[in-house]
Amino acid sequence: MHATSAHPFPGYVRAAIGAGAVAVAVGLLVLTGWALGEETLKRILPGLVAMNPLTAVGFILAGLSLLFGCAPPSPVRRRSARAAAAVVALIGLAKLGEHAFGWHLGFDRWLFRESLDVPGLLPNRIASTTALNFTLLGLALLLLDRTTARGPRPAELLALPVVLTSLLALFGYAYGVQWLYVVPAFIPMAVHTALCFHLLALGVLCARPDQGIMAWFTSAGAVGMLLRWQLPGTVTILFFLGWLRLEGQRRGFYGTELGVALHSMLNVTLFSGLILWSAWLLRRAEAARRREQEERERFFQLSLDLLGIADSDGRFKRVNPAFTATLGWSSEEILSRSFLNFVHPDDLPATVAEVDKLKGGAPTLRFENRCRCKDGTWKWLAWKSQPFPEEGLLYATAHDVTERKEVELAIQRLNTELKGRATELAEVNRELEAFSYSVSHDLRAPLRHIQGYAEMLRTALGKNLTEPVPRYLTTIRQAAEEMGKLIDDLLAFSRVGRVGLQRQGVNLGRLVAEVRQARELDLKDRAIEWRIGPLPEVEGDPNLLRQVLANLMDNAVKYTRGRDPAVIEIGATTGADGEITVFIRDNGAGFDPQYAGKLFGVFQRLHRADEFEGTGIGLATVRRIVTRHGGRTWAEGRVNEGAVFYFTLPAGGATSAAPAPPS
Q1: Are residue 108 and residue 43 in the same domain, yes or no?
Q2: What band does 234 get if pLDDT is binned at 50, 70 and 90?
Q3: Does 280 reside within a domain?
Q4: pLDDT value at 612 more than 60
Q5: Co-location of 190 and 148 in the same domain
Q6: Which of 283, 384, 558, 630 lies in the 20 to 30 Å Cα band around 501?
Q7: What is the residue-wise DSSP string for 331-375?
């Protein structure tokens, strides 16, 4: 079923709805006339045949079936439409059985029997032509949505005889020829019966205007225009000319011979005009089609993409010049053999499978293979194809993607090489970490020996020490301590790369407070102003993040030595993507900005050892820990203007900032 508002030809569907409504209204008026004894409602004009009450019921049911068939689809409407149509068909079949086999069912006298059986008058029964039309019309309404693969719909084939028989009856009433609306020895068809049949049959045709024969009428081309204008106009004009000729003869204006001559001349004039008009329309349509074909041909010839038409066996029937420009073969060479002969052997199985899919009617949206050029090279082509099984043809277009494919293959090779190098580097890093750990661990024993023997030497000599021996021993002890600190830092740096992350919720504010508290005794003689803002809770390894904060805070404390007061500020910001940035700012010695990139390297120092102690490993450890957490590190600063160190932690686990602990 179809909704009128959603149909592509709503005007036709509205006409079908109007026909159904008129049939229902006429049926109700006729029944009212029989109930009230009003002759005008039963027969329209005095002397004409009255419509049988059961005929009126049939029109009400047929009209309702057509109305339900044009309404928005629903199971209830569909069942109601079919039930009403079935009753209409049964009425017609039953009455045809009476006429054909002499049955005396008398069911068309069930309503208003006293008014129907009037002595001395022609008995009012359903006419044989009426019964036939009800049968055809009921079946047409039952099969309204049945379609066939080709040709007209069954409903149209059933409705067309109804159109012709009812039109014949209307011609008989208009021309005064009784034989046209009554079969000899049978009851005549009433004029409003013929009119309702004609409207309902046309309504069946208009109910589905985009299917079957009606699709010819509604098409946008010359055929549709000819049918829409010429067929109704021809029927109307011929009807008027026939009536005019008969009326002139009856009034004595001319005799039979002159009437026939005039009628023939008018028919010749009419059909000549129609033929000339049809020829003009067809000529215009042919010119438009020729222009469209020329435009398509220009696109076909000028396209940079490869365009071709092939049969179901994979042999091209036509190709555009882009084939020759891309592959180097002439059109004759391409058309003379199957296209599979040009396909790379490695791509042949996939290509054959794709062709089989096309033979089955499935389109190819994108398929890539290599085709051999005449110079022996290969080109990558990306295909898009559409099969038309009814024509046995495949329409295909291809685009040369050789450059893109070469780039993709080069990227794949590069990725493979990079993966191999990454694996090698990972192995080297593991070996370096193991070596660093081993060396650092093994250096502790000789270092302890140096410290121990230096102290033993100092004790053994006792008061006999004279300069510069005490100074030498002090230098040995200090160097050993520095070496021990360096070993500790190397071990910590090595351990960062080997220890797995223990992720959990970490309160950065609490970690900062713990680091400060652990250093209170060492910093009791320093004037330091701590400015700690709200810090969020994040997800990470608490021990490693404590080491990051400890290294950066120790760095700030070290490089603000000599500032009174030293100002160290710690805070955090959250970006639009949820990334957290933590900063530690100080007013210390700062650094030259051009060397900012070296700060986080191993053993990288921007100050002399006699200025600021250190091993150059702390910031490298910070970067390694932050990188393992998925973050970044960088620094900003100027000489004698302080520095700011930043590290980020990715989104996913951060909560609202906690208030800063008391300074």
Answers
A1: yes
A2: confident
A3: no
A4: no
A5: yes
A6: 558
A7: HHHHHTS-GGGGB-GGGHHHHHHHHHHHHTT--EEEEEEEEE-TT
Domain boundary among 214, 247, 263: 214
Q: 204 or 50, which is more confident?
A: 204
In the chain, the number of structural domains is 4
329: phi then psi, degrees, rounded to nearest 5: -80, 150
pLDDT, greater one: 146 or 493: 146
β partners of residue 646: 583, 634
Upstream peptide bond of 468 is cis (omega within 30 degrees of 0): yes
Structural tokens at position 45: 């004009």
| 370: number of Cβ within 10 Å | 20
Residue 605: pLDDT band (50, 70, 90) is: low
Provide the residue range defining the domain that includes 208. Answer: 10-214
* Torsion over CA: 112, 113, 114, 120 (sign): positive
Distances (CA, A) of 16 to 81, 160, 170, 199, 224: 14, 15, 20, 8, 19
Tokens of 43: 């027969």
Query: Which of 85, 89, 90 is closest to 63 using CA atoms?
Result: 85
Verify that 506 and 613 share a domain, yes or no. Answer: yes
User: Is the pTM of the predicted complex or chain greater than 0.70?
Assistant: no
Which DSSP letter does residue 576 get?
T
Q: In what order do the strands lie in the sheet with 633-637?
A: 528-532, 566-574, 580-586, 643-649, 633-637
Mean predicted confidence (pLDDT) in 235-261? 82
d(CA 156, CA 526): 105
Q: Could you tell me which residue, 557 or 595, shows the higher pLDDT? A: 557
Pick the last residue of a domain from 453, 481, 509: 481
Tell me, yes or no, whether 65 and 175 share the same domain. yes
Residue-level pLDDT at 121: 47
Instruction: In whole angstroms, give the CA distance from residue 483 to residue 615.
Output: 9
Query: pLDDT digits over 272-303, tens only?
Result: 887 888 788 778 878 888 888 888 788 888 88
Give the CATH number of the domain where residue 538 resides.
3.30.565.10
Residue 367 has pLDDT above 80, yes or no: yes
Q: What are the distances in angstroms from CA 608 to CA 615, 636, 659?
A: 11, 20, 38
Place 122 in a pLDDT band, splitting at 50, 70 and 90. Answer: low
| Sign of torsion over alpha carbons 470, 475, 481, 483 | negative
| Closest C-alpha among 88, 111, 124 to residue 32 | 111
Cis bond leading into 389, ω under 30°? no
Q: Exposure string (b/e) for 310-334, b if CB count within 10 Å is 16 or more? A: beeebebeebbebbbebbebeeeeb
Q: Are residues 455 and 566 in the same domain?
A: no
Residues constituting the chain: 663
pLDDT attached to residue 3:
46
CATH of the domain at 345: 3.30.450.20
* Distance from C-alpha of 78 to C-alpha of 628, rounded to nearest angstrom: 68
Pairing between β-strand 580-586 and β-strand 566-574 as defined by DSSP bridges: antiparallel
On whether both 309 and 167 belong to a single domain, the answer is: no
Indicate whether 433 and 354 sit together in one domain.
no
Mean pLDDT calculated for residue range 338-350: 90
What mean pLDDT, rounded, does the chain reach? 81
Residue of 518, 514, 513 lying closest to 663 (CA atoms): 513
In a domain, 285, yes or no: no
The answer to whether residue 467 is domain-embedded is yes
**Rounded-to-integer distance, Cα 423 and Cα 27, Å:** 91
Confirm whether 128 is domain-assigned: yes
pLDDT band at 486 (very low <50, low <70, confident <90, very high): low
Whether residues 125 and 170 share a domain: the answer is: yes
